[in-house]
Amino acid sequence: DIQMTQSPSSLSASVGDRVTITCRASQSISSYLNWYQQRPGTAPKLLIYAASSLQSGVPSTFSGSGSGTDFTLTISSLQPEDFATYYCQQSSSAPWTFGQGTKVEIK
Amino acid sequence: EVQLVESGGGLVKPGGSLRLSCAASGFTFRNAWMSWVRRAPGRGLEWVGRIKTRTDGGTTDYAAPVQGRFTISRDDSKNTLYLQMNSLKTEDTAVYYCAAVGGSLQFAYWGQGTLVTVSS
Asked: What are the φ and ψ backbone dihedral angles of A2, each rounded to 5 degrees?
C-alpha cells in the first residue's frame, strides 16, 4: 500500500500569512494527488486535483505543486474561513490512501 | 446541482449489520465511479472502498480493515449507492461519506455524511 505522510501535523498562523503543507508518498504516484479541506462538522471539500489543478469555485489563494513523491499545498494569504484540517490523498493505486491531516489553527 | 444524500446510519451492536444508502442527483450517476470514505472520532479520513461503472466492469476494491466484511454495490436505475456492513466492530464507529469520483480520480463531490455507532 502507498503511505502518505503530511507535515506538519498542525500549525498556528495568522490571517494574511502564507502557509505551506507538504505531503510525501512512499512511492511514486505521478500526479495522482488531491487535496481536501474539512471544517469541523462538515463534509470534506475538494481543493486541488491532479496535484495542481484548482477545483472550480475554490479561491486562487490555494495552489498545489509537485509530482512523483513530493507535493505541496500553499495558501498564499490565509483567510478566516481557511482555518480547518487539510488532507492529501493519492489515487494512483488501490487502496487509495489519505495523509493523516494538517490542522491549521488561529495564532 | 450535484447532491449526494446518505442515509441508514445509527446505533448497532458489535457483530451486527447495517446498510447505508447514498442517493445521487445532478449528474449522470451510471457514468461515475463512486466511493465511501469514513472519519472515526478523533481520527483522519479513511478510504473504505470504491465501485467502478458498469462500463468499466463494475468491480469493487476495499481497504484492508473492511475487506470481507463490507460490500459496495450500486443500482444505476435508482441512482443509488450502497454500503452493506457486516460483522461490525467498535472500530467501525465513524461518520461515513459517499463521494463521486471525477475524471482525475479525485473525490469531486461529497455527501453530508451519516453516523454509524457500533457499541454494546
From this structure: -85, 125
Cβ–Cβ < 8 Å for A28, A68: yes
Query: How would you classify the pairing of strands B60-62 and B18-25?
Result: unpaired
How many whole angstroms separate alpha carbon B96 and alpha carbon B29?
19
Confidence of residue B118 (pLDDT cuts 50, 70, 90): very high
**Beta carbons of A19 and A13 less than 8 angstroms apart:** yes
B106 burial (CB, 10 Å; 0-12 / 13-18 / 19+) is: buried
List, for residues B96-106, the tens digit of each pLDDT value: 999 999 999 99
Q: How far is A79 from chain B (nearest CA, A)?
A: 23
Task: Find the residue in B nearest to A102 (Cα).
Answer: B44
